[in-house]
Every structure is written in structure tokens, then in C-alpha cells.
């Protein structure tokens, strides 16, 4: 059976084999079993093309049961997170304005064929009186869908997040409710087809200890062990080469403004694909075999929380 899957570079092919248990001879059979399970899951309106499904097999290290669980959760969380996934037409979201803030963008280049994708987040770049963190996340999740669709590097080699807290204040974080925090961490830890390799914090303000003590409660031990704080920028460049970092960080890459414009153009070029991702696909809880999911059963909360309380 001919597979409609992009060929991998030798470096990514080796990582897929050594770290993800990929065996090309087994993929056709596993994909057919995956599709058969989807067909027998009446609540799911899921994509079933080879490239999409193989991303879930890869992130699950070819455990079909884990891939099924992750795919179900992927669509279920999206269905129950309207603040992130409803009404996501880039024109209505005014993504052009949001991308000028460039609060969270992936670096288009990597330092080798087998290195992770680097994403830079800068919460301090937006005015918390004008915007909310969930708006920034909603615009970034459009980019995330494009990465899922096209970026074998990120799916196989993983991602590294840099969180630059320069200019960030307590007001940037207190608009978060525990419900939003839980949704975001569940997406990252349990429903994402990407492998989070590390999170690096730089320019950390003194108040962030209190914020992080709240965030930490929602993270599993695996993610906690991959978080690093840097006292100075030079220590970060020991992990991530300056060759790919933006000019804003003393690197050789394009400026954050140029990178943000690249993603802005890409979002609008794929506008219909991004709209279809949540209008054509999802879950119908009325058709789920067994007990339907709801925000309380998914997130362990009832949605009535106030803002995060940070003493």
C-alpha cells in the first residue's frame, strides 16, 4: 500500500527509528487499524489522512492505544475550549494586529536537520489592559496547527520553548483562571502531537516565583524536569546556538518583527484550512459510546473560578 507521507531527511529518519520506534513496514497496517477505530467511534469527526494520523503514532512512539487516546483528547479538548478554538477566522481575530506584537512565534530555521524547533514566547510585549493572554494563545494556536500540518522537524525532533519575561508584569498573568491554565497544560502534556524537549526562562522578574508556584501545580513531573531558568543570556546560548536566534537576541537570524510577519502571511494564506480545522472536525458528545465528556470531567473544574490567586 502506497503511503501519502512526506519522506524524511536521513537525520529525522534516524530519530524516528531510534527514539519513536518507527518501522516503515508496519505503518500501513497500523494506519488501517487506526482508521478502523475512528470509523467505530461515532462521536469523532476526525481527519483520517496518512500524514495527520502518523503524527499521532509518532508522538505516541507507535503505541496504537496511546495514539487513539491522544487523538480523542486532541479533538475533545478543542471542542470544550471555545476561548481557544471557536471563531478562529484570522480576519475576525485581527491576527495582523496581534502578530505585530509577536508575543509567541516559532523560529523558521533550526541549527541542524535533527534539532528541535525553537519557539519564543514574550508575554511582556502586549498591554494587559488591552489584550488577554488567551487572545495571544488563540493566535498562536493557529500557528500550532500549521506546524502540525507541515513541520516534520517539530513532530519528530521536538520543540524547545524560550519564555522571555522581559517587560512582563503580574497583570499579564492574573487574568488567567485555573480553568484556562488546566486547559493549556492538558493540551501541551496530553493532547499535543509534539514532543516538548525543554522550556527555558530568561529575564525572570522577582515576582515570577509566585506565578510559577501556581503554574507548577498543573505540570507533570516529566515537564517539570525539563524547565530551566537562566540567570543571564549567555547561559541560554550554551543550549541554543546564536546562529538561529533573532537579531533581537544578538543572534544571526531575522528580527522578531520579520519572523512574525512570516507567520502572519502564512496564517492568512491558510485561512480556510484553519477555519475548517475546528468546523469540519471535532467531537459530538451525544454520540460518544459511554459517558459523555464535559469541562468538569475533563478538567476537574466547573468553570466558575475567579482569577488566579497569587499571594
Q: Rounded to an integer, what's the Rg over CA atoms?
A: 19 Å
**CATH class wording of the largest domain:** Alpha Beta
CATH A-level architecture of the largest domain: 3-Layer(aba) Sandwich
Q: How would a textbook summarize the main sheet?
A: 5 strands, mixed
Give the total of domains.
2
Uncertain segments? 302-306
Strands side by side in the biggest sheet: 2-3-4-5-6
Q: Name the CATH superfamily assignment of the largest domain.
A: CRAL-TRIO lipid binding domain
Overall pLDDT: 92
Please report the number of helical segments.
17
Beta-strand portion reads: 5-15%
Q: Could you give the count of β-strands?
A: 7
CATH level-3 fold name of the largest domain: Phosphatidylinositol Transfer Protein Sec14p
Shape: globular
How much helix is in the residues? 40-55%
- Assign the structural class, choosing from mainly alpha, mainly beta, alpha/beta, alpha+beta, or little secondary structure: alpha/beta
Our measurement of the CA-to-CA distance between the termini, rounded to an integer number of angstroms, reads 59 Å
Helices and strands, in N-to-C order?
HHEHHHHHEEHHEHHEHHEHHHEH
Topology record:
Blueprint: H1 10-20, H2 27-39, E1 44-45, H3 50-59, H4 64-79, H5 82-85, H6 90-93, H7 95-101, E2 104-106, E3 117-121, H8 133-150, H9 152-157, E4 159-164, H10 171-174, H11 178-191, E5 196-202, H12 208-215, H13 221-224, E6 227-229, H14 233-237, H15 256-269, H16 271-279, E7 282-283, H17 295-299
Parallel strand pairs: 3-4, 4-5, 5-6
Antiparallel strand pairs: 1-7, 2-3
Helix pairs in contact: 3-4, 4-11, 7-15
Amino acid at each position: 500500500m502506497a503511503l501519502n507521507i512526506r519522506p524524511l531527511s536521513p537525520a529525522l529518519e534516524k530519530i524516528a527509528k531510534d527514539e519513536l520506534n518507527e518501522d516503515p513496514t508496519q505503518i500501513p497496517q497500523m494506519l488501517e487499524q487506526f482508521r478502523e477505530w475512528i470509523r467505530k467511534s461515532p462521536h469523532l469527526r476526525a481527519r483520517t489522512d496518512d500524514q495527520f494520523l502518523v503524527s499521532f503514532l509518532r508522538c505516541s512512539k507507535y503505541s496504537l492505544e496511546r495514539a487513539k487516546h491522544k487523538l480523542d483528547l486532541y479533538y475533545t479538548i478543542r471542542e470544550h475550549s471555545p476561548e481557544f478554538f471557536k471563531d478562529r477566522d484570522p480576519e475576525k481575530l485581527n491576527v495582523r494586529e496581534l502578530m505585530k506584537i509577536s508575543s509567541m512565534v516559532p523560529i523558521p530555521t533550526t541549527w541542524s536537520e535533527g534539532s528541535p524547533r525553537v519557539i519564543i514566547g514574550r508575554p511582556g510585549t502586549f498591554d494587559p489592559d488591552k489584550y488577554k493572554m488567551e487572545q495571544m494563545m488563540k493566535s498562536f494556536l493557529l500557528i500550532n496547527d500549521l506546524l502540525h500540518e507541515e513541520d516534520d522537524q517539530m513532530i519528530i525532533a521536538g520543540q524547545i520553548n524560550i519564555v522571555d519575561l522581559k517587560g512582563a508584569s503580574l497583570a499579564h498573568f492574573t487574568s488567567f483562571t485555573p480553568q484556562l491554565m488546566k486547559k493549556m497544560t492538558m493540551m501541551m502534556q496530553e493532547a499535543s502531537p509534539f514532543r516538548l524537549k525543554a522550556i527555558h526562562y530568561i529575564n525572570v522578574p522577582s515576582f515570577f516565583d509566585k506565578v510559577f508556584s501556581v503554574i507548577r501545580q498543573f505540570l507533570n513531573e516529566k515537564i517539570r524536569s525539563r524547565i530551566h531558568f537562566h540567570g543571564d543570556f549567555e547561559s541560554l546560548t550554551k543550549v541554543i546556538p546564536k546562529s538561529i536566534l533573532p537579531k533581537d537576541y544578538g543572534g544571526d537570524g531575522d528580527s522578531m518583527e520579520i519572523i512574525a510577519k512570516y507567520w502572519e502571511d502564512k496564517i492568512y494564506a491558510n485561512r480556510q484550512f484553519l477555519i475548517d480545522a475546528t468546523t469540519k472536525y471535532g467531537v459530538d458528545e451525544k454520540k460518544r459510546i459511554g459517558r459523555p465528556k464535559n469541562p468538569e470531567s475533563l478538567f476537574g473544574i466547573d468553570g466558575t473560578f475567579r482569577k488566579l490567586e497569587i499571594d
